[in-house]
């Protein structure tokens, strides 16, 4: 017999799938879309009191790095949240987390690992409905990136108050305890999820993180043959009945 916690998780997971049916993802490429993302970031960070002390713009050079992927999440065709996903390798070490925790990130890379480093997560603070679901829907490209790039770790550089969320739902380990980050003026901590180990548990618990290979290609393929980024990308979680992916190996 399932306990109350298991029932609650199952019900919430079902709710997430139903909301996902109204979601579209967009890989941000145009100047107009980037301006929308900048406005959303500012509104979200100002509301939460986490604007970087030295920030002159809500866009930075890393947004345009060829290993960075900025996504907008659209609910009922309205932009509601955004995230930037960075593919970090031993030969391409640009990383938001490394700006705060260089020793820890470089230790992973020196060991030959590849990383997915999500950053710039922002959710429209004016939304009343579906607020509890949006963090889960917004980080979905992070899990897809770990699969697509066969990454060893997913990083989370976050405020300490959010660490319980990532430990509980993404089975993250603490890499660096809370440390004062001068660029922000408050403490941050670094966590990391072991992608291949957590895969079966994560995808079983939250089927919204399932995806078809062609959806992952639409999200992350930048080869010359792929052409222009699609305007919108529809989630394929319901179609993905099996996952022959590195996360599950």
From TrEMBL:
SUPFAM superfamilies: Acyl-CoA N-acyltransferases (Nat). Residues 36-191 form the N-acyl amino acid synthase FeeM catalytic core domain. InterPro entries: Acyl_CoA_acyltransferase, FeeM_cat. Transmembrane segments: none annotated. It comes from the Bacteria. Pfam families: FeeM. This is N-acyl amino acid synthase FeeM catalytic core domain-containing protein.
């Amino acid at each position: 017999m399932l306990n109350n916690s298991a029932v609650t998780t199952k019900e919430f997971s079902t709710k997430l799938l139903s909301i996902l049916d109204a979601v579209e993802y967009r890989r941000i490429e145009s100047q107009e879309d980037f301006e929308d993302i900048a406005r959303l970031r500012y509104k979200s960070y100002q509301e939460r009191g986490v604007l970087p002390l030295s920030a002159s713009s809500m866009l930075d050079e890393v947004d345009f790095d060829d290993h960075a992927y900025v996504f907008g999440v659209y609910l009922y065709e309205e932009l509601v949240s955004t995230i930037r996903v960075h593919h970090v390798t031993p030969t391409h070490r640009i990383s938001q987390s490394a700006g705060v925790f260089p020793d820890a990130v470089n230790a992973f890379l020196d060991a030959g690992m590849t990383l997915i480093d999500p950053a710039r997560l922002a959710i429209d603070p004016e939304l009343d409905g579906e607020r509890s679901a949006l963090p889960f829907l917004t980080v979905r490209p992070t899990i897809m990136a770990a699969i697509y790039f066969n990454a060893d770790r997913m990083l989370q550089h976050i405020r300490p108050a959010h660490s319980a969320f990532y430990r509980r739902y993404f089975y993250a380990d603490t890499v660096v305890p809370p440390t004062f980050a001068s660029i922000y003026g408050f403490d941050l901590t670094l966590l990391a999820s072991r992608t291949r180990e957590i895969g079966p548990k994560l995808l079983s618990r939250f089927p919204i993180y399932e995806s078809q290979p062609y959806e992952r290609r639409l999200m992350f393929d930048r080869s010359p043959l792929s052409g222009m980024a699609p305007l919108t990308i529809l989630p394929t979680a319901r179609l993905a009945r099996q996952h022959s992916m590195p996360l599950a190996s």
